[in-house]
Design goal:
The complex is a heterotrimer.
Chain A lengths: L1 H11 L4 E3 L7 H12 L6 E3 L4 H13 L4 E6 H6 L1 H9 L5 E6 L13 H4 L7 E4 L3 H18 L3 E6 L15 H7 L16 E2 L5 H33 L6 E4 L6 E5 L3 H14 L4 E6 L1 E3 L3 H8 L4 E6 L9 H11 L8 E6 L9 H13 L8 E2 L5
Parallel strand pairs in A: 1-2, 1-3, 3-4, 4-6, 5-6, 9-10, 9-12, 12-13, 13-14
Antiparallel strand pairs in A: 5-11, 8-10
Chain B lengths: L26 H13 L3 E6 L2 H5 L5 E2 L5 E4 L4 H14 L6 E6 L2 H5 L2 H9 L5 E6 L36 H7 L4 E6 L3 H12 L5 E6 L3 H4 L6 H10 L5 E5 L3 E6 L7 H5 L9 H25 L29 H6 L9
Parallel strand pairs in B: 1-3, 1-4, 4-5, 5-7, 6-7
Antiparallel strand pairs in B: 6-8, 8-9
Chain C lengths: L5 E2 L12 E4 L5 H5 L6 H9 L3 H11 L3 H7 L3 H5 L11 H14 L12 E5 L3 H12 L3 E6 L7 H4 L8 H12 L4 E4 L9 H7 L2 E4 L5 E2 L12 E3 H9 L9 E5 L3 H12 L3 E5 L11 H10 L2 E3 L2 E9 L2 E15 L5 E14 L2 E4 L3 E2 L11 E2 L2 E2 L12 E3 L10 H22 L9 H4 L9 H5 L33 E2 L2 H6 L5 E3 L2 H8 L13 H5 L5 E4 L2 E4 L9 H5 L5 E4 L4
Helix pairs in contact in C: 2-3, 3-6, 4-6, 6-18, 7-14, 11-12, 12-13
Classes of the chains: A alpha/beta, B alpha/beta, C alpha/beta.
Chain lengths: 381, 341, 571
């Protein structure tokens, strides 16, 4: 299952400190890791903290002391961690965390929804969205390498139940290969009695901006670094994903933009429509933070209309991927600006079937323009 | 011994530098200085938000000659457990991980993480320096503020109405290997307690009373005097507890009434005689409770062992008083002037 | 990430302060109270570190005969000791005695002569010997003239052996002689040696002839057999005589002479009764001496004065006494005795001693030396109205104690040094009298005069440290060690020393009870309590890093002995 793909990825990455708190649908991630620690498959310390906020604090502590730290959570737990997500990023701690996308309550909802991870988009974490269990396992390992190269925390995101609890065949890389790809962490700065320093003391207005500039610079290097890392990964095992993956976009007049498991369904629909002669293509967004502005501008260049599928909501605004895409297309020169249709779909785990996607493609073709910024699909009102 | 002499009895190495930003006469830097002297340089300090976050100096300065991690307010114990795990992974289990938190970060916002770590018996030394209010943010009440005290959120017309949270009892209930109260007026007692804490593994908790001139409203130079009076009138007894069951009073001076202690502080100036009578009663009752615990302890601490036959795995730390050698001697020691040791 | 690269030592928080601490030696009350002018606190501080020889050296800088004062001094130092208000005074006399006895075992380095001037001293009692000692140490040639066959003055004549053993006195005199002091005995100035020859032979002269003439009782029957001067009686016994006193001896008087007579009488087999016109509280004798007398069995009759002596066959048989009561205070500040009309009684007596005071014989002195009603007119340094002539001791001043005499001898030595330098054209810009004095009312320090104080002082001021300036929380109660004593039965049997003092170890332990008022003794409390770690050890004391010290005042407040004060000076 997807959750175990995370665990296996973490094990192969030889994480050293794990600190986590259980929440549906993340539990199998940490249960599997517990067993691995208990039977010796994984030589790591597992701290059974009393809350997610403490879980992130413990990961930060471990990372500050030079260890490779990992945690996993979802929805309410991620929200509780919010303060410490900022702390990890400003502190430049390369913690890797798996977030199982789950809806925010109340009412309680354990099914997939991207609002939890996207609510944290300003905290300074790299966000990588996964479509398959293979991608999940690979991204866990890639995540550590990315994190430790840039000294940035990395969040890998997978859909609740559709990925977390769904079993798929996965090619598990050799430990030897992973060791060669991802050597033990060499922290640039760490808590060390041989070189005593203070970390995170008061920074006044005359220096805080520079710190944030450094953080931003690191973020903006992420796409290039990811490409390098993926190139090496592809060399070793033949797989790569890209910050952005265009699918059958040649000559497309209408492009779907998706992330997560909706992408798989969208691929199926694109194949169908292409067969029917429609000039439709798909862009999968893997890297949401930093936002892959250049890549997306290039990817959407040919199309007249773009339909963004957002399994999330920023109340008062609309779908977040759509909003960010619009912002990316607003500035700059020398590229074509398609019409952006932002569709809000599948909140709280509501199924996004091929029929749903086909219907919104039709709507997109037919409409003069988007009647509003957020176009809700499938509401029963 | 007829007089107190510290020459040759206090470790000489200074691990805290001058130039820190504490108010003149503040007990908090003195407490840190003494604790670090007792622990030595093989120490990493985790510091959630409190006065010390400022006292330590702004970036790029640090007042400590040991590594220091500034962390968010409620995360002291959690961050420390992460550091502990990382050190253990690289085989540096001898390095002490010490949380240095105020009363806010311990009694209130930090109590959850502290309880979580203590329940797991994480191998950390947790030190709470208690100035009895949120002093760093301008003297607002905390659950450590004593009954009747003025603070900015418990003004004189409506002073603090809750008794001080009994952190000693709470931590004792966690049955951690070692916990003790101490204060800056008795450095030798404090240092000895740090040494005892250092000699065992697991969660160790030290509660240090830290008088605050602006918050308690008294003259700078009387900090030591106030700490001494707090102990003398039993408002802050000097106690140690092992494994949650073995209680011992480490200094039992001839009792003084609470009045002079209260009168010395502006934060109590609005109290009436009736209030003082009430406070005296409560202090006496708590002292009696402690004495009761001491009597029940009967001297020797209990031995905490995991139940036989259950393998608790690699996460279990060597903990409990069975791993310490000092208790047998100290159980025999008569209560005497702490500076006599 | 915000990672530190420097310490807070770059942050000079010293700019915050508006007051600062200074280590300032103040005067311990014992030093001020001592009539000799000894740095008592100083040698007790050295004893804390077991530095016995240095303690002895410091002591003998000011006191030429600690083995004697440790035994007979009335120790006002102990009455002023701040520790009295905490538990009990330090037993300074017992410690001084141990040091004094040790001094007598130490070799003497004869002082180098520093001038050709010579000093002549009349009288080898404590005043004369002290002046001789200090003058010799200042480099002068000193000769002492003593009328009696042996030196010592009142020390030999008036103080019984059970208080001051002969062996100790002789050893002390020998020790003093080893300083190059010449003592000529059997030489009475005024008769054997004319005054003019004395004044001609020496560049400066110190008169210390004491007060040797017992005051008469002034009642009928004074010339009867069996009625004697108490002082003459003591002289005889101290010279070896053991007269028979009959069954009952009555001693009239309340001072130390009276106590000595009474206890001596017991040892000669008589019952001793002391007759005193006021009450015990007004007795001028040292309280311990009164206690000892009582312990040995001396009876006391208070509020009674003799009216006449009763006799039979020209021999005294008793005293008729007037009952007295206390009225208004007199010139001495004590309530004057007033007869109770019609109340009289008689006491049987085989011997009666008068011990009501002594007067000075000034008749033989040159007329140009001005007298006043109480004796000679003398100034701060014991100078008389005649240039080059100084006088001190019992002949000049009250109270008449060994310690006061020693103090006067020292003052005279300083005065003589000033005078001789002046006339030889090498005047010394030495410290003024106030600077030499301990506190406001103490005696002068000759060490300060010499300017070679071996004790490192930090900004010393001449203020006495009061009990309120101490921080007594850093002291722990500990009882004072009591002197060993002979049992009463044994002490009455003869003239062996009754007070056995303390052992060497006990004396060192007792010295550790000293608070060291006003003078730093490096306890490290300031260093440990400083919240800014701004105090460090330096140069035998401490140093405050002023660039960091915030002036909080904790160090000054906690210093157990008040050796730190907060000041605005220098800011």
């Amino acid at each position: 299952m997807g959750n175990h793909a995370v665990s296996w990825g973490a094990r192969l990455s030889r994480v050293e400190v794990i600190s986590a708190y259980p929440i549906t649908p993340q539990t199998q991630v940490v249960e599997e890791l517990s067993e691995m620690c208990a039977d010796g498959r994984l030589d790591a310390r597992f701290i059974k903290v009393e809350s997610e906020h403490s879980a992130m604090a413990a990961c930060i502590g471990a990372s500050a002391a030079g260890a490779r730290a990992f945690t996993a959570t979802s929805s309410q737990g991620l929200a509780l961690m919010h303060e410490m997500l900022h702390w990890a990023a400003n502190g430049r701690h390369p913690v890797v965390m798996a977030n199982i996308n789950r809806a925010m309550g109340p009412g309680w909802n354990i099914w997939t929804d991207q609002s939890d991870s996207l609510s944290q988009r300003d905290t300074g974490w790299v966000q990588l969205y996964c479509e398959t269990n293979q991608e999940v396992l690979d991204t866990t390992i890639l995540g550590f390498k990315l994190a430790e190269t840039l000294d940035l925390p990395v969040m890998l995101v997978l859909d609740a139940f559709y990925l977390s609890h769904t079993a798929e065949p996965v090619d598990v890389p050799d430990q030897e290969m992973v060791d060669a790809f991802l050597p033990p962490r060499q922290a640039r700065y760490k808590l060390d009695v041989r070189d005593p320093r203070a970390f995170g003391a008061l920074v006044k207005p005359d220096a805080y901006m520079e710190m944030r500039w450094q953080l931003q610079e690191a973020m903006l290097r992420a796409p290039a670094v990811l490409e390098e890392i993926e190139a090496e990964w592809a060399q070793r095992c033949g797989r790569r994903y890209g910050a952005v993956e265009p699918y059958r976009t040649e000559g497309a007049e209408l492009l779907l933009v998706t992330s997560g498991t909706v992408t798989s369904t969208a691929r199926f629909v694109v194949d169908q429509l292409r067969e029917g002669g429609e000039a439709v293509g798909l862009i999968k967004v893997k890297m949401f933070r930093p936002f892959p502005t250049e890549a997306l501008r290039a990817a959407v260049a040919g199309a007249a209309r773009v339909a963004v599928l957002d399994r999330n909501l920023s109340p008062g605004r609309g779908g977040i991927f759509a909003e960010e895409l619009r912002a990316a297309l607003y500035a700059g020169n020398g590229f074509r600006r398609p019409e952006v249709f932002g569709y809000v779909v599948g909140l709280g785990g509501r199924d996004v079937t091929p029929e749903v996607i086909q219907e919104l493609v039709r709507r997109t073709w037919r409409a003069k323009g988007p009647e509003r910024e957020d176009l809700w699909v499938g509401l029963n009102l | 011994m007829t007089q107190v002499r510290f020459a040759g009895r206090v470790p000489e190495q200074e691990l805290m530098t001058s130039g820190h930003l504490a108010c003149p006469g503040c007990a908090a830097p003195l407490a840190m200085r003494l604790v670090l002297k007792a622990l030595g340089p093989n120490t990493i300090v985790v510091m959630p938000a409190s006065c010390w976050s400022i006292i330590a100096g702004p970036w790029p300065q640090s007042s400590l000659r040991v590594p220091l991690y500034h962390t968010a307010f409620e995360t002291g114990a959690a961050t420390a457990s992460g550091i502990r795990a990382a050190l253990d992974v690289r085989g540096e289990s001898d390095t002490t991980v010490m949380v240095w938190a105020g009363d806010g970060g311990t009694f209130d916002i930090g109590i959850q993480a502290l309880s979580g770590a203590a329940e797991l018996n994480e191998d950390i030394l947790y030190v709470c320096y208690d100035n009895e209010a949120y002093m760093n943010t301008g003297i607002q009440r905390s659950s450590a503020t004593p009954w009747g005290a003025w603070t900015t959120t418990t003004p004189e017309d409506h002073p603090e109405a809750s008794p001080k949270k009994d952190m000693l009892a709470i931590m004792a209930a966690h049955r951690i290997p070692y916990l003790a109260t101490a204060t800056v007026a008795y450095p030798l007692d404090l240092i000895e307690k740090v040494h005892k804490a250092h000699a065992v593994r697991g969660t160790r908790f030290l509660h240090i009373l830290s008088p605050c001139p602006p918050g308690w409203k008294y003259a700078d130079e009387e900090t030591i005097q106030l700490a001494r009076m707090a102990v003398g009138c039993r408002v802050f007894p000097l106690v140690e507890v092992e494994a949650g069951r073995s209680w011992r009073v480490t200094f039992d001076p001839p009792p003084e009434p609470v009045g002079p202690y209260l009168h010395k502080q502006g934060r109590f100036r609005h109290l009436t005689e009736q209030h003082e009578v009430y406070i005296q009663r409560e202090v006496d009752a708590r002292w009696e409770m402690i004495q009761q615990r001491v009597r029940e302890s009967g001297g020797a601490p209990s031995d905490w062992e995991p139940a036989a036959g259950i393998d608790v795995g690699p996460d279990a730390r060597q903990s409990g008083p069975s791993s310490q050698s000092s208790t047998a001697e100290t159980a025999e020691e008569a209560a005497s002037h702490p500076s006599n040791r | 990430m915000a990672v530190s690269s420097t310490s807070t030592l770059v942050s000079k928080t010293g700019s915050w302060k508006y007051i600062r601490p200074i280590y300032q030696d103040r005067v311990a009350p014992c030093n001020e109270a001592c009539p000799v002018g000894i740095d008592v606190e100083g040698y007790l501080n050295l004893l804390r570190e077991d530095r016995l020889d240095e303690a002895c050296e410091l002591l003998v800088r000011e006191n030429p005969m600690p083995a004697i004062t440790g035994r007979v001094c009335h120790h006002p130092c102990e009455l002023s000791c701040n520790r009295r208000q905490f538990d009990e005074a330090v037993s300074v006399h017992a410690i001084e005695r141990v040091l004094g006895d040790r001094v007598l075992e130490m070799s003497v380095e004869r002082p180098h002569p520093t001038s050709c001037a010579s000093v002549g001293i009349v009288g080898s009692g404590p005043a004369g010997l002290a002046c001789a000692y200090h003058a010799a140490r200042l480099g002068y040639a000193v000769t002492v003239f003593e009328a009696a066959p042996e030196p010592g003055g009142m020390l030999r004549a008036g103080i019984p052996e059970y208080r001051l053993p002969r062996a100790v006195l002789d050893k002390q005199i020998a020790w003093l002689r080893a300083h190059g002091i010449t003592i000529q005995c059997g030489a009475r100035v005024g008769t054997d040696i004319p005054w003019w020859s004395l004044l001609g032979a020496f560049d400066a002269v110190f008169l210390a002839i004491g007060a040797q003439e017992s005051k008469a009782l002034g009642v009928p029957g004074e010339k009867l057999a069996g009625v004697e001067s108490g002082l003459d009686f003591l002289k005889q016994v101290n010279a070896g005589a053991r007269p028979s006193l009959g069954q009952r001896a009555v001693i009239v008087g309340g001072g130390n002479t009276a106590m000595d007579c009474a206890r001596t009488a017991l040892r000669l087999g008589a019952e001793a009764t002391v007759l005193y016109r006021r009450t015990r509280a007004e007795m001028p004798a040292i309280p311990e001496e009164i206690d000892e007398a009582e312990r040995e069995g001396v009876r006391f009759v208070f509020l009674a004065a003799p009216i006449r002596l009763l006799s039979s066959d020209g021999r005294v048989t008793g005293i008729e006494c007037q009952r007295m009561e206390l009225g208004a205070p007199d010139a001495s500040g004590r309530r004057a005795p007033v007869p109770v009309k019609g109340a009289r009684f008689s006491l049987p007596a085989d011997t009666v001693f008068s011990a009501i005071g002594e007067s000075v014989q000034l008749e033989s002195l040159p007329a140009e030396i001005e007298r006043i009603s109480s004796g000679l007119l003398t100034g701060e340094y014991q100078e008389t109205t005649r240039a080059a002539v100084f006088a001190g001791g019992d002949m000049v001043q009250q109270p008449r104690t060994v310690a006061d005499a020693l103090g006067a001898g020292k003052r005279a030595a300083i005065g003589i040094d000033q005078y001789l330098r002046l006339i030889s054209g090498r005047p010394l810009e030495g410290p003024g009298t106030d600077a030499l004095r301990y506190g406001r009312s103490g005696n002068l320090s000759i060490t300060r005069w010499r300017g070679d104080d071996p004790v490192a002082r930090t900004s010393p001021v001449n203020e006495v440290l009061r009990y309120e300036d101490l921080n007594i929380h850093h002291f722990v109660h500990a009882p004072r060690r009591a002197d060993g004593r002979l049992e009463v039965a044994e002490s009455r049997r003869g003239f062996g020393e009754v007070n056995l003092g303390l052992s060497g170890d006990a004396a060192l332990e007792e010295a550790r009870r000293c608070f060291n008022c006003g003078v730093c003794n490096r306890c490290d409390l300031c260093l440990v309590f400083c919240p800014d770690a701004a105090i460090s050890r330096a140069d035998g004391g401490y140093e405050v890093a002023m660039e960091y010290c915030k002036g909080c005042g904790v160090c000054a407040e906690e210093c157990p002995r008040g050796a730190i004060v907060m000041t605005r000076e220098g800011l």
